[in-house]
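Box 4.2: Ligand-aware structure prediction
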Amino acid sequence: MTIMTAFQQKITELLPQIELNLEESLAKHTSFRIGGPAEVMAFPKTGAELSEILKTSALLDCKPVILGAGTNILAPDAGVRGLVICLRNLQETLERLDDSHIRVSAGVSMARCATFAANLGLSGLEFAHGIPGSVGGGVYMNAGAYGGEICQVCTEVEVMDLSGNRRVLTGEEMDFSYRHSRLEGTGDIVLSVTFALTKKPSEEIHEVMQDLMTRRRSSQPLDLPSAGSAFKRPVGGYAAALIDQTGLKGYRVGSAAVSQKHAGFVVNLGGATSEDVKQLLRDVSQKVFDATGISLEPEIRIW
Ligand SMILES: Cc1cc2nc3c(=O)[nH]c(=O)nc-3n(C[C@H](O)[C@H](O)[C@H](O)COP(=O)(O)OP(=O)(O)OC[C@H]3O[C@@H](n4cnc5c(N)ncnc54)[C@H](O)[C@@H]3O)c2cc1C
């Protein structure tokens, strides 16, 4: 029988109704398939449950870590002591508000959200269809692709702060910029998002989404675990082009490698550790800087 830590004992006593997993593997919940155990992982199903978890966490003096679909995260090999809140099981809602607005809950996948809009004949989320995260993670990251970005279509975000209080922020208040939102500073948790879209025939929207998916499949290593583009786009260039130009395609540290198919991706060849990936990111940044004078900054969130 495994012995519970003091934190595990306290939180399981205080939250008997909430789904809590102890020593839950983070590798299981991240697209990189990397990461040790979370001391406690909570799976709230409703906003009320999330609020209860946050209040209890504050009581125990623990700042929780938020996990969406885990597609942009490098989790530590040693795992995370304390609480990880996984928003994947949050009740899913997708609703049409009027002719041009939809509201979607945070745990819904980008693909499902984009398909929902497309089926209603609402255009603007085609770019997001192939981004493999949740709507909440997409808003936090201001995710984007093929010229589209969440900030172009997001008009309102309902958030919960770490004390469990809800409020609605406008798109302007979100302070969006390239792969950044105000949530990075506040730690607020996205509950739902409103998108403003424009009318277009469904077939045309589906056609664009399919075309973008084909482009993605032909250029990205979707058959290997990764967290997408490893580096942000630097001023004056593209990270993938700079890495390729520096001759780093296939460069390896342990079982982490720069993808042969897309130099902007770091892939897990099987059994890569967080330390392998971090060393590889450092090496690639240094070599690109030495060769081009351009600094690369990780896009992946390193826990
Ligand atoms: C194959 C592949 C392709 C990708 N292509 C793209 C692309 O084209 N464009 C792009 O921008 N990204 C891309 N990504 C990266 C990733 O999918 C996006 O950043 C995505 O938006 C992350 O969402 P997530 O739910 O997985 O967030 P996670 O990875 O779980 O979390 C990312 C950050 O958001 C926070 N977060 C998550 N959910 C919430 C919430 N509800 N409230 C508050 N904070 C939250 C987390 O704490 C973390 O800091 C790709 C990734 C992969 C694996």
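In the box above, the bound molecule is flavin-adenine dinucleotide. The chain has a mean pLDDT of 96.
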